[in-house]
From TrEMBL:
<protein>
    <submittedName>
        <fullName>Sequence orphan</fullName>
    </submittedName>
</protein>
<feature type="signal peptide">
    <location>
        <begin position="1"/>
        <end position="21"/>
    </location>
</feature>
<keyword id="KW-0732">Signal</keyword>
Length: 357
């Protein structure tokens, strides 16, 4: 099994040339009209958008840039949602995907796209499409891949990561200043806060009977100095952070690399959804931003596990896990999306894609 990755950024550049507009999702790709594989991938993203549109009540277009390009051998796809700072209901400023802000009718400075997805052009032999002969043991269903990546793009994403200054790899923080790139680490930097995503705002530690919200750690981290404080460089900022917050930032790395330590607690629920923290070496592309493989890969919540099963189609997995309505989007995932702020369609159709095989 190979990994499905996401990489949140703030600013993106359009590289694509062709647009397909279907329902709420506008898919813009760099596919050559003669490239059959690329165009079939694009169509599966259109179909995935329809599935999401049938699970959520969406009212504003979501712009998706699909880039077909070489990626690492162990990666089928990676997704980059555009993020903007916005006040959460608890008055804490967090990073929201623009795809969600549009549905909330929030005014913000627009970008060219809301979601950027890269699909590995070196893995063509591993791709199976609805309508193909029986799926082989080394193939993955692109319809599932497309749905998985778009779910990351609309908000299933965390910013907890190692600091940009690579001298510090023994602790995690949310995104410094809300920016993916704070410039040269040797340049002076003004501290404006560490920013969680809206998804991060519902993380809880589940390794003890008391459910402790991880946002409390973020609040503590942000108290290490006043906003507007200028530091000589990134090293100086991180060193100052460790003077008072070393226990918290190192604790977060422990949580993120200890199995069954972190969960997502949906609004109104007492039961946290277990997130992926099984890798003893923190992996930004996988850790936290997926559900637990061991707990959910054979359940209705298989879609957002970090490793997609080979040799089985999306439709087969839906049937094997009880044929739950939603087209692969299970009840827990729907509750996560509702908690983030989307309006949920209470009665999604059983089969949201007529092309399923």
């Amino acid at each position: 099994m190979r990994c499905l990755n996401f990489l949140p950024l703030i600013l993106l550049i359009i590289l694509s040339s062709k647009v397909l507009s279907q329902d709420i999702f506008d898919i813009e790709s760099n596919c050559d009209p003669q490239d059959q594989v690329c165009n079939k991938i694009e169509q599966e993203f259109v179909n995935a958008g329809k599935i999401i549109s049938n699970n959520l009540i969406l009212n504003a277009k979501i712009l998706v840039e699909l880039i077909y390009e070489p990626l690492d051998d162990d990666t089928f796809g990676q997704t980059t949602p555009v993020l903007r700072i916005h006040d959460s209901p608890d008055t804490v400023q967090r990073l929201y995907p623009t795809a969600l802000l549009k549905q909330l009718n929030i005014t913000f400075e627009p970008d060219f796209v809301d979601i950027q997805v890269s699909i590995n052009s070196n893995a063509n032999n591993s791709y199976w499409f609805p309508g193909d002969p029986d799926i082989q043991s080394t193939q993955i269903d692109v319809s599932e891949l497309a749905l998985h990546e778009l779910i990351h793009g609309i908000g299933f994403t965390s910013t907890w990561d190692f600091p940009e200054d690579q001298k510090f790899i023994n602790f995690l923080t949310p995104r410094l200043n809300g920016l993916e790139d704070n410039g040269d680490p040797e340049d002076p930097i003004i501290f404006d806060g560490f920013f969680e995503t809206v998804f991060d705002g519902f993380l809880v530690y589940i390794g003890s009977p008391t459910r402790n919200f991880i946002t409390n750690i973020t609040n503590s981290i942000n108290s290490f100095t006043a906003k507007g404080t200028e530091f000589d460089n990134m090293d100086a900022l991180n060193s100052k952070l460790l003077e008072t917050q070393q226990q918290n930032v190192e604790l977060m790395l422990t949580y993120a690399t200890t199995k069954s330590s972190l969960g997502f607690l949906p609004t109104g629920s007492q039961d946290a959804i277990i997130l992926d923290t099984s890798n003893p070496e923190f992996d930004f592309a996988s850790s936290i931003s997926h559900v637990s493989q061991d707990d959910y890969e054979n359940t209705t919540e298989f879609l957002m596990t970090p490793h997609q099963k080979e040799g089985v189609t999306l439709q087969a997995q839906i049937q094997q896990t009880g044929n739950t309505p939603g087209g692969g989007i299970g009840p827990n995932l729907r509750s996560i999306l509702g908690t983030l702020g989307y309006t949920i369609n209470p009665n999604p159709p059983n089969n949201t894609n007529s092309n399923f095989q």
